Give the backbone structure.
Amino acid sequence: MKFKIFASILIFTITGLSCHTDKDDMASPAPPKGVILKSVTISGIPALDANGNPWDSDGTGPDLRFTMDDNKGNWLFYSDVIPNADLSQTYTFDLDPDVRIDSVINGQNKWELEDENNLLGSEYMFGNFIYFFDWKYDQDSVMLHPRDPRVMLSVEYVY
Ligand SMILES: [Ca+2]
Ligand SMILES: [Ca+2]
């Protein structure tokens, strides 16, 4: 009787372990063939730039433009400007039409948030490369910048 209980526990444990392994396998499927980038949401933009100065000397908020490029001189997305942003607000840029990127393996694409200054051109605010290989492919949003400003990308994978 004791042995039977032990055997049951053993089988249960092995079954449990094999389920666990299956689950792990499901959590990391083959990488998708591509990704469709749908929108970008930005919040928590700091009031001051890296030098401790306001973005604009006239006391207004920064004039936001969001861009993505392939790091080879081609725009993937170039937004309209949101003038005099209220930094307590969350802003969403719809990527319309959606941006489709066919290789999700390499991280050569870039995003950038800029403050537009009319005739003076634009001032870099924040940006980074987009490292697709870090992404969890079972999630439909990706945090591009986990500290302020928080930059969240909505995505849809193509298999
Ligand atoms: Ca401004
Ligand atoms: Ca400006």
